[in-house]
Amino acid sequence: xxxxxEQFRPADHPNDxxxxxxxxxxxxxxxxxxxxxxLDQGEVDVTVDGRSHSGAEIDLGFEEAHWQExxxxxxxxxxxxxxxxxxxxxxxxxxxxxxMVEFFAHRIAGYEFHGPVKVWGHNYFDKxxxxxxxxxxxxxxxxxxxxxxxxxxxxxxxxxxxPYTLANWSFNEYYEDDEQLAYxxxxxxxxxxxxxxxxxxxxxxxxxxxxxxxxxxHAIVGQCLEKLTAGIPDDVRIGLHVCYGDYSRIYPExxxxxxxxxxxxxxxxxxxxxxxxxxxxxxxxxxxxxxxAHVAEVESVEQIKRNIRKGFEIVPPERxxxxxDCGLKLLPREVAYxxxxxxxxxxxxxxxxxxxxxxxxxxxxPNAD
Amino acid sequence: MxxxxxxxxxxxxxxxxxxxxxxxxxxxxxxxLIGGDESEEIEAQYDRAREEAVERQTTxxxxxxxxxxxxxxxxxxxxxxVHDAVETRGIVPGPYSLADLxxxxxxxxxxxxxxxxFLAGEIEAxxxxxxxxxxxxxxxxxxxxxxxxxRASEAVDRIAGATDAEVVVxxxxxxxxxxxxxxxxxxxxxxxxxxxxxxxEANLYNINEYGTTDSVALGLVDGxxxxxxxxxxxxxxxxxxxxNVPAAEFDTVYVAPNAELxxxxxxxxxxxxxxxxxxxxxxxxxxxx
Lengths: 369, 289
Prior knowledge:
A: TIM Barrel, 7-stranded parallel beta sheet
C-alpha cells in the first residue's frame, strides 16, 4: 500500500525520489507554557503585602481565555518549528495534551477520575476508571487539527492514542475484560477519525505503546484496527506506532493489520532487531526511527544517513518514511529541534544520492523490486 | 470457631499530599529513589504519612494494622536497597521474590540463602508484631522448578523461624503450581495466602487437593481495580470459599486484598479498607445473632 504517500510530496520538493519525513508527535513544551498552566491551575505562590498566598486562594487575574491563547500560541510556535526544520508532514507537538491517556479519558463518557496513582518511584498519573459504558460525547481532536492545519503550510498528521492502550492503562470496572473495553473504545476512535477526515485530515497515526509490554495481545490490537478503520476512505494514510519492545513477538502478524505504515523504534537499540523485518518480506510501508528520542545529543547528518540506509534493507525508498524513534518531549527543546533538522537534511541528501543512482544496496537498487 | 481477621497485604498508596511533596523533594529519576540518607524534611513527611495510615486503618476498624510500607519506593526490592535504615513492621518481601528481583551478580546459587539470612536478621530486629506477612508474588509469576521449589520453601521456613508472630505467606497474581504449593506446605508457617481475585478455581483446587495450613489468608478484594467490593460481596466470597472447602475448619481466616494496594488512587484504597473491616465485623455479628 503506497497509494497514500504521494499526496504529501511538497510542491517544491528538490529531488525525484521522495522519502517522507515526519515525527511521532510529542515535543517539549515551551517553559512559558508550563508557567501559564501553573497560573491556570492556581499552582503558584504569590506574595501580597508581605504575606504569602497560594494561587488557589486568590484571584490571579488569569482567565480561561488567557490559557486558551497560550495554548494557541504554543501550537502555532511548535508547528512552525517543525516546518522550519523542513519536516514534510508536521504536528503541533501535542501542546494541548497533558498525557496520552488522561487527555482522551476526559473527553469520553463512561470515564471517572479518582486521583493520581503510582507509575514507578515518585512518578504518578491520573489513571482513569471506566465505570460505565464508554460513549462518544464531544470531538477529541477536531479543534486541535483545525487550528494546526490553519497555521501550517505543510500537511498535518494526527496522532491518536490507540484503543488497546487506552483500555490497558485504565482501571476497568465495567467491561467483562480489557479486550471488550478496547473494542468499545475502537468504535469511538472510528467516530473520531471519521470527523477528522471530514475536517480534512489525511494522515492518522495510532499510538499503541501498551502493545510493546504485552505483545501476545497483537490479535486484539489487529481487531481494534479493523474496527477503527472501518469506512475510512482509502486515501487516508493510517500509521501504527509501537514503541521499543521485542518486535519478533508481533512480527509478521502486524502485516495483516489494516494499516498503510508501521512505525518502529529501532535506533534506540542500534538496529539490532532490523533482521526481524526481513523474513518474511515486509509488505507495508516502514516508518523508521533514525534519531534516538532518549539520548540528549544530536546525531550527525552522516550518522542519520547511515541509519536511513538501514531502512533499505527492509523496503525500497518509495515505501520508507523517516522519523524520530518516538515522541521528543523528554528532550531539551534545542536538541529536539537539532535532531529534526539533521534528520531532514540527511533524508534530502539520501534522496539526491538515490536520484544519482549512488545507493545500490538492498532494496534501494534501481531494479531491486 | 473460625476467627475472621480483616487486614491488608500492606504497600499502601501515599496520601495525595505526600505524592506531590515527596516527588518535589526527592525528584523523578531512578537515582532519586530511597537510599537511606535523607533530609529530616523527607523523614518528617514519611512519619506524618505513616501516622495517617495507622489512624486511617484504626478508623476503618481493621484487625491488624500495618505501617503502609511507604518507604518501599522500589517495591519488593526496597529492603535490599537500604539494608541498614529499613523499618518494616509486620510485612516483608519473601526470600524467593526478593532474590528473583535482585540482580544476582555476587551470590550465584547462594543468593536465596543470603537473602533468607538477611531477612531473618531484619525480622529478629523488628519491634513486637502480632502477624508477619511474607509477600511472595514471584512464587506464582516466576515459579521455581524442580529442586528450586523445595529450596524456596526452606527459605520461607527459615525466616518464619525468626519470629514468634503468626506467619502468613502470601503468593499472588494467580495460583501456585501444585508442586510449589505442596512444598510450601512443608514450611512452618501459620497461614498460606490464596489470591482468589486472579484465579479462584486453581486456588480452590490446590486447597482441596493438597490441604492447607490451619489458618488461611484469602485475597478477596482486588488490589488493582478501583471498583470497590461491598462488605456483602466480601462476606459472600468468604462463605463461598468455606463452602467449597468442606474438609477444612480454619482457626483464623485473614480477609485481605489479593495483592499490594499502592497502584490504587487514595480514595478507592480507603474505601476498600472500610469495606474489609465492615465485612468481618458484620460477619461476627451474624454468627453471634
